[in-house]
Design goal:
By secondary structure, the chain is α+β, with helices and mostly antiparallel strands. It has 15 helices and 12 strands.
Length: about 425
């Protein structure tokens, strides 16, 4: 058996002197609390970023093709989804992505004593509307494939409340199309709530065909093509490749117009830059927690070293070298650290699971866009945190262990 490990096993933690129990308890608690805070911070930040990104990508597409730049007056506000354009898109976009024809029309909702400027969004009835349906809190999503629902709209509960409207109420929608004012009387078929204030206040869902009738355009004409299902890491590359392909196709005559491409990283840059700042906060918290854990552990080991100076002197006089003494206290510190990490993992994962399944810690949606603290428990990330903490603690343990190994045996065998 390893000599240093054998000796360290027989050094009973917390019983070597009057101050040891408190010192060891503080060290274990410090490591446990640090690990709990790290795991909770990581899970909450990742969960928060994922939650905000999901909302952003629910309201907007990852990549968007806009109205072509053309001298043709009829193509300045709308685009025709042709087979040629579809072919170019599929040359770049992965096959598992969803391509939606969408129409976004600015307008105004008006009641007898109030009004609100909004953006009406119309999408094909066969589009994947999982995000939209999940946010419905009153009523049900209209079947926009049925012509009977052309004048049915879906607005947020927040917007309806501000206008004094409710489910089933009728409201006038006003549009300005080609410098002409057009009005439609819509019925509120459902209310949604995403807790994403800026979008909840402005986004109203409507029938694509109904909006096309307002704009006076055909069934195959829209003002944007939304491409969804692209992973966050691929958005920039795919949008760049798609833009190059569209430019090349326009230059060679395969397409008659030049189509601009945009992506959510640019249109939602304000939110993504804000989310990126959270990574800095995580780094700061990790550093502070490691400092706390390291300080309590080093302090406790120094107390243990002072209490065991005679033992160190005896071991040195019978031939124990500095490396052995150093390893004994590294092993001793490792025992303390392991206890703290075990307790920290049990408590930390327990709290995360409690929050994930009960949402016990609530948030103000007006401030944070989410109704409760989100958590994302990633086993790989949790393991990485534990390995990182273990490595940092091992390096920190070398400081007091080196001090113990440097003790002079002639001055440590006897204590007054």
């Amino acid at each position: 058996m390893n000599v240093s490990y054998w000796i360290s096993r027989r050094l009973r933690l917390g019983r070597g002197g009057d101050g040891s129990p408190v010192a060891i308890g503080i060290a274990i608690a410090g490591i446990a609390i640090a690990l709990i805070v790290m795991e909770f911070t990581l899970a909450v930040v990742v969960g928060f970023k994922d939650g905000i990104r999901d909302k952003l990508m629910g309201f907007d597409a990852q990549v968007t093709i806009g109205v072509p730049i053309s001298d043709d007056e009829s193509l300045r506000h709308y685009l025709r989804y042709s087979t040629e354009l579809d072919s170019v898109i599929h040359e770049v976009v992965p096959a598992d992505c969803e391509i939606r024809q969408a129409l976004r029309q600015p307008g105004m909702l008006k009641t007898d004593d109030n009004f609100q400027g909004v953006i009406y969004i119309g999408q094909r009835a066969d589009a994947d509307l999982t995000f939209e349906r999940e946010n419905i809190v009153e009523g049900s999503w209209p079947d926009y494939g049925d012509v009977a629902n052309e004048n049915v709209i879906v607005m947020s509960k927040q917007l309806a409340s501000a206008l004094g409207l409710g489910l089933g109420d009728k409201v006038y929608s006003t549009f300005i199309v080609d410098e002409a004012i057009k009005m439609r009387r819509h019925t509120i078929g459902a209310l949604y709530q995403s807790n994403f204030g800026e979008y909840d206040n402005t986004v109203v869902y409507a029938s694509l065909r109904g909006l096309q009738r307002v704009a006076g355009i055909g069934e195959n004409e829209v003002n944007r093509i939304d491409i969804r299902g692209i992973s966050l890491d691929e958005i920039s590359d795919i949008s760049h490749q798609l833009q190059q392909q569209l430019v090349f196709s326009a230059a060679t005559g395969a397409l008659g117009e030049y189509y601009p491409v945009d992506n959510i990283l640019r249109s939602g840059a304000l939110y993504f830059n804000w989310l990126a700042l959270l990574d800095t906060n995580v780094v700061v918290i990790f550093i502070l927690m490691l400092a706390v854990a390291g300080f309590t552990l080093v302090s406790s080991l120094f107390i243990l070293i002072l209490e065991r100076l005679p033992m160190i002197g005896i071991l040195r006089t019978i031939g124990a070298g500095k490396p052995l003494i150093k390893q004994i206290f590294v092993d001793l510190g490792t025992k303390v650290a392991l206890r703290g990490m075990i307790i920290g993992n049990i408590a930390g994962l327990g709290l995360l699971l409690l929050q994930k399944y009960t949402h016990i810690i609530k948030l103000d949606p007006a401030m944070y866009y989410l109704a409760s603290v989100p958590v994302d428990i990633n086993p790989v990330a949790i393991i990485a945190v534990n390995l990182g903490v273990a490595l940092a603690i091992f390096l920190i343990l070398l400081i007091p262990a080196s001090v113990a190994a440097a003790a002079d045996p002639s001055k440590t065998i006897y204590r007054e």
